[in-house]
């Protein structure tokens, strides 16, 4: 059973209002996820898009291929940087709250990250961009509490 996941994050200003978009696909099944925050960063939303997709999976031990246009997320995982950051307690790293949350879900599955060029006409990546930017523009967005409270590094 392989899950295909496309993700994207956006912020209007960095920091500024931001959103994430995730498309999950398995066979004929498809699920879209999105959400936004009043003040956050693009990298936080890129990472949160992956987290939300992984957390939405109802079974463990799945093969998941994640397509992201974020070099920040793709490199951190595929070059194994995040595991070194974890060993050092994320000292001096940004977004430790989200990376810790990511690792919990990541370890439940067999995840491969693949980088795709953003805004290059890849339909599912474009859809994620649309979900993320639309979410960032919604009225009355909630706080990204860890970011606003200075707990995001």
Can you give a write-up of this model?
With 153 residues, this protein is of the alpha/beta class. It has one domain (2-143): Ribonuclease H-like superfamily/Ribonuclease H (Nucleotidyltransferase, domain 5). Helices cover 39% and strands 29% of the residues. A five-stranded mixed beta sheet has the order 3-2-1-4-5. α1 (42-56) runs parallel beside α4 (96-106). The longest helix has 15 residues, at 42-56. The radius of gyration is 15 Å and the shape is globular. The chain starts with a strand and ends in a 5-residue tail after the last helix. The model has no long low-confidence stretch (mean pLDDT 97).
Please tag this protein with its features:
single chain; Nucleotidyltransferase, domain 5; about 150 residues; alpha/beta
In short:
The chain has helices at 42-56, 71-78, 81-87, 96-106, 123-136, 145-148; strands at residues 2-11, 16-26, 29-40, 63-68, 110-115. It is α/β, with parallel strands linked by helices and 153 residues long. The mean pLDDT is 97.
